[in-house]
Write a structure and sequence with these properties.
Low-confidence stretches: 1-20
Shape: globular
Helix content: 55-70%
Distance between the termini: 49 Å
Number of domains: 1
Strand content: under 5%
Radius of gyration: 17 Å
Structural class: mainly alpha
Number of helices: 6
């Protein structure tokens, strides 16, 4: 017996992501995954003053993301321009940490096998950003600890 289209399960959304069998992410979810990853590196970069150091740190953070395994890099490869939180430094930090928590929740729900890889990519990005200006300060280590806690 052949199935008619009405007998077949309905599918919606984008095709499955590489490395996430059956998982599909909405544009908003991709935006959260991307924003969280990129803003985490920026949070570490802002922990110390210095425009030129911040530029080096931003490049280092982006390089770590681009160098992650393809199925992990694909999580942040979509989603358009990352969210740019507004407000005081404390409000920007709070929003960044909130996005990191949301990103992990999205992955736990839709692609739990990618959670550890995403966490590793974000933390490597933060560590690379901190080390890019020749040393890692106490403020940068504190920022990394906050990111790590938000990813738990």
């Amino acid at each position: 017996m052949t199935e008619t289209p009405a007998d077949q399960p309905a599918t919606t959304g984008a095709p499955a992501e590489p490395g996430a069998p059956g998982a599909t992410f909405s544009d908003d979810e991709h935006g959260t995954l991307r924003s969280a990853a990129l803003l985490a590196g920026a949070l570490v970069s802002r922990a110390e003053k210095g425009m030129f150091d911040s530029i080096k740190e931003s490049f280092a953070a982006s390089k770590a993301i681009a160098g992650s395994p393809p199925q992990i890099a694909a999580l942040v490869g979509k989603g358009g321009f990352p969210e740019l939180p507004k407000g005081t430094p404390e409000q920007v930090e709070a929003r960044t940490l909130e996005l990191l928590g949301q990103a992990v929740a999205i992955l736990r729900a839709k692609a739990p096998d990618l959670v550890d890889g995403y966490r590793a990519m974000v933390l490597e990005s933060c560590r690379d950003a901190a080390a890019a200006a020749d040393d890692t300060s106490g403020n940068e280590l504190a920022a990394i600890a906050k990111v790590e806690s938000a990813l738990a």
